[in-house]
Design goal:
The chain is of the alpha+beta class. About 35% of the residues lie in helices and about 20% in strands. The chain has two domains: about 210 residues, no CATH class; about 120 residues, no CATH class. The strands form two sheets. The protein has an eight-stranded mixed sheet with strand order 3-2-6-7-8-9-1-10. The relative contact order is 0.16. The chain binds iron/sulfur cluster (2 copies). One iron/sulfur cluster (SF4) binds next to helix 11.
């Protein structure tokens, strides 16, 4: 274990960013949105719980080119898009977002493997930060997330110091930087971690999340709650875009001056044209679309993969303009009988 004073963090970051691209959470801009951005040195960091925009976009960007076709003299040649080769380091990730990546792994690293996602996952070192400011909408502990310890390196802030514990082989790549800019210590920080866990588990949302059930598709699909809750859904897609586990995308070809670029971009099951095919739209009403999103998180994903497709980050609870979030669905499922 290593420790450094709060003022020593920028020297450590300076050493890390000499060798790697370093991302850290910041909050600025007109709308004051917190998100992960490259660290250039000297900026104020946002280290108060999970960010508005999550870790997901560093691994599965909102928009990315996946192929390029160059047109010359009537012929088309395919130009490969480069995958990530150098390592990136992410500091300040919340444990719920790291768990979100584990859910995405179940989708993108399964055959056929998504090579763009895989290269980013393999070439990243994630330093979690013990979440000592959970929000009232957080319920990560209901999904087995440990807000006090996760990632390749676990960092904890306590009494004016940052403590770093290396947890994986990838984390060891930063050991020389830690050894140069921090002091080695055998202090026990388990009490601090336990406080973090208890605080997260005491959030009001966690009491509702604790009502999660493992009901099967046939027990939930036709419940009256879907019509009742979806009535005011705007179909805006905010809940899907901000969710660390939502992974649907569409593919589109755009004309360029010398050919075509094929790109993929996030899509949302809340949109009326989502998965629309020549044979028609499989989910015609907003009720069906709303049900799809929450059935996928709470029933289908668990039936197919053995884990829920939600990590309790609370973003959809905070950001849904109509307050039709997943906690309401969990509560209704636990109370409703067909
Ligand atoms: S549930 Fe809320 S955030 Fe999601 S699409 Fe409907 S209105 Fe938008
Ligand atoms: S469904 Fe809502 S609470 Fe669950 S992981 Fe997604 S955004 Fe977070």
């Amino acid at each position: 274990m290593y420790k450094c004073g709060i003022n020593g963090l920028s020297r450590l970051f300076g050493a890390i960013s000499e060798k790697y691209t370093l991302y850290a959470p910041k909050k600025h801009g007109v709308n004051s949105v917190s998100q992960f951005e490259p660290y250039g040195g000297g900026e104020d960091l946002y280290l108060s719980g999970n960010t508005d925009r999550g870790l997901k976009e560093l691994f599965f960007p909102q928009y990315e080119p996946v192929a390029r076709f160059i047109e010359k003299d009537g012929d088309l040649t395919v130009k490969e898009i480069e995958k990530q080769s150098g390592y990136t380091v992410v500091f300040g990730a919340a444990a719920c977002d790291i768990k979100g990546l584990e859910i995405l792994d179940l989708v993108f690293l399964k055959e056929p493997v998504d090579e763009f996602y895989k290269s980013r996952r393999e070439k990243s070192i994630i330093i979690s930060l013990g979440c000592d400011s959970p929000s009232e909408t957080c319920f990560c502990t209901c999904f087995g997330v440990d807000p006090g310890k996760s990632g390749d390196i676990s960092a904890i802030k306590s009494d004016g110091f940052y403590y770093f514990e290396i947890l994986t082989e990838k984390g060891r790549l930063l050991e020389s930087a830690l050894a140069s800019f921090c002091e080695k210590t055998d202090e026990d920080i388990e009490d601090q971690r336990e406080k973090i866990r208890k605080r997260a588990a005491s959030m009001p949302a966690a009491a509702i999340g604790a009502r999660l059930t493992d009901k099967k598709t046939e027990e939930v699909f036709d419940l009256p709650l879907w019509a009742k809750l979806s009535e005011h859904c705007l179909g805006c897609g905010a809940c899907t875009y901000l969710c660390p586990t939502c992974q649907c995308y569409d593919i589109k070809d755009d004309r360029t001056k010398d050919g075509v670029i094929r790109c993929r971009f996030w899509d949302s099951c809340m949109y009326s044209d989502f998965t629309k095919m020549s044979a028609g739209q499989p989910r015609l009403t907003q009720k069906e679309r709303y049900r799809q999103r929450f059935m996928h998180k709470l029933v289908y994903f668990r039936e197919n993969n053995g884990v829920f497709g939600c990590v309790g980050c609370g973003r959809c609870v905070r950001k849904c303009p109509s307050s039709l979030h997943i906690l309401k669905v969990i509560k209704e499922i636990s109370e409703n009988e067909r």
